C-alpha cells in the first residue's frame, strides 16, 4: 500500500505528526504537495483533492491521508488509522484508546502553543495581534505549558511497563508526537524550555530516545524534514519567550 | 454494564457530548459528581479519582468515563469508545473513522467558541480579557463560524445515504454533538445565529431531528439536563454577539 499524504509543503505543521509515524513505520508514502506540479502533484493536486465535487467524505483541512480509495483527515484520526497498520500501537483496544487519549491531549497542547502567536484570529498576521500574543504567551509559558509537561512526565513515571515510553514498552505514535512537541517548543521558546527542562528528565530522555531511532534519525537528517520557520505552528518570536 | 461519568456538575460543558450519547444509547449510567457526597459521590469522588496515586492511565481533565475497570478520557475518545457499544456508529472501520473525523472537527469548533470569551487565559476571568474577547468574537462570528457551518452543511448535502444525518442513514454520536453545538451557539450568539441560520437549512433540520428523538426529548425535559449558564463553554455575553 502506497500512502499519499496531502499537507502544506513549506511547513512541518500538524502534518509532521503524520510524517513521523510514516517514517518510523517504514511506510511507502508520497508527500504529494512537495512533489513537482509537472508530475501532476504539488499544491494544485492538494487543492484538486479538497475541492473534488463528488467527494462524499469531505475533509475540513489538511493533513489528509489517502490510502487506496479511503481518505482520512484530522491529525489524531489519521494516527488512529495508521497506528495498527504501522505497528505503532498496542494490540488491545484499551491500550489503543489510551494512546489516542494521549494524542488528543498532545493536540490540545499544540493548539495552545499555536495560539500564543495567533490568539485573536488565524486569518490575521502575528503583527496584527501582538499585544494579545504577548499576554497569551506569558500565560502559556508560566501556567499552561508547565501543567501539560507535569502531566506527561507523570504519565511516564506511572507507566507500569517502565519509563521509556508513554504507553506500554514499545514506542507508539504518541511518543513520536511528544518528541515533535519538545522539538517545537525548543524552537519556539528556547529560554523557557531551558528553564523548565531540568524538571522533566523523563520527557527529555523520551525526546532523545525517539531522535535516536534509526529511521527517525535518518529522516531528521534528510531533505524530507522541513526546517522550523515562522509560518509554522511553532514560531520563534523572542518577545513571546518569557 | 453501568457506566460512571465524572464531570463538573454545574455545567453542560464537554461532558454534555458524552451525556447525549449515553442518553440516546439508553445506557445505564451515573453522573457521579452530581450525586450526593453522603453516598460517596459528588465532586469529592471526582477529585479522588483524578488524584488516585496508583492510577497508571492518568486523565488530564474531565470528562472521564469509567467502564468496569477501564478509564477513558478526552471527549472524542470517550465517544470513540462508546460509539459501537451504544449503536451510535456505522459497522465498518472506514465509517467509524469518518464519524470520528467529524467529531474532531466539531471539537475544534467548540474550542474556538470557548476561546471567544477566553482568548488569553482559561485561568483568568472573562472580565480580565474583555477587549481581546471582543476582537476574537468578531472574527469568530464573521469568519470562523460561517466556515465551520459551511463545512457541516456541505457534509449533509454530500451524504450519499441522504441528508438526514452527517454519516450514513442513522444517527451517530457526531449528529448528537452537532445538535449540542447548534444549541450552544443559539444560546451564546442568538443574533448571529438568527442571521446565519437561513443559510444552513440542513443543519437546522438536523438539530430539530435530534431534538425529536424520544430519548433525547425526554432527557432535555428532565432535571438531568443542566441549563446553559455563564460558567460554561457556551456563554451569553451580548457584547460578543456581533
3D architecture notes:
Chain A has two domains: 83 residues, Glutaredoxin; 121 residues, Glutathione S-transferase Yfyf (Class Pi), Chain A, domain 2. Chain A has nine helices and four strands; from the N terminus they run E-H-E-H-E-E-H-H-H-H-H-H-H. In chain A, helix 3 packs antiparallel against helix 4, helix 4 packs parallel to helix 6 and helix 6 crosses helix 7. Chain A is globular. In chain A, strand 3 and strand 4 form a beta hairpin. A four-stranded mixed sheet of chain A has the order 2-1-3-4, with helices on one face. Chain A starts with a strand and ends in a 21-residue tail after the last helix. The first copy, chain A, is an alpha+beta fold. Chains A and B meet through strand 4, helix 3, helix 4 and helix 5 of A and strand 4, helix 3, helix 4 and helix 5 of B.
Amino acid at each position: 500500500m502506497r500512502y499519499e499524504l496531502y499537507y502544506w509543503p513549506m511547513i512541518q505543521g500538524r502534518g509532521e505528526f503524520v510524517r513521523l509515524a510514516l517514517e518510523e513505520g517504514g511506510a511507502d508514502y508520497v508527500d504529494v504537495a512537495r512533489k513537482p506540479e509537472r508530475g501532476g502533484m504539488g499544491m494544485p493536486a492538494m487543492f484538486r483533492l479538497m475541492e473534488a465535487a463528488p467527494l462524499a467524505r469531505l475533509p475540513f483541512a489538511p493533513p489528509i491521508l489517502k490510502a487506496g480509495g479511503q481518505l482520512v483527515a484530522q491529525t489524531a484520526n489519521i494516527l488512529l488509522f495508521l497506528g495498527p497498520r504501522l505497528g505503532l500501537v498496542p494490540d488491545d483496544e484499551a491500550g489503543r484508546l489510551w494512546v489516542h487519549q494521549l494524542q488528543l491531549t498532545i493536540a490540545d497542547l499544540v493548539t495552545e502553543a499555536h495560539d500564543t502567536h495567533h490568539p485573536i484570529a488565524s486569518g490575521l498576521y502575528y503583527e496584527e495581534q501582538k499585544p494579545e500574543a504577548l499576554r497569551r504567551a506569558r500565560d502559556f509559558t508560566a501556567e499552561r505549558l508547565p501543567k501539560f509537561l507535569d502531566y506527561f512526565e507523570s504519565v511516564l513515571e506511572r507507566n507500569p511497563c517502565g519509563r521509556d515510553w508513554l504507553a506500554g514498552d514499545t514506542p507508539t505514535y504518541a511518543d513520536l508526537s511528544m518528541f515533535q512537541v519538545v522539538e517545537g517548543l525548543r524552537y519556539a521558546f528556547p529560554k523557557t524550555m531551558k528553564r523548565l527542562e531540568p524538571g522533566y528528565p523523563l520527557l527529555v530522555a523520551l525526546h532523545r530516545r525517539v531522535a535516536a531511532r534509526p529511521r527517525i534519525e535518518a529522516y531528521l537528517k534528510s531533505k524530507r524534514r522541513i526546517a522550523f520557520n515562522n509560518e509554522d505552528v511553532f514560531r520563534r518570536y523572542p518577545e513571546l519567550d518569557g
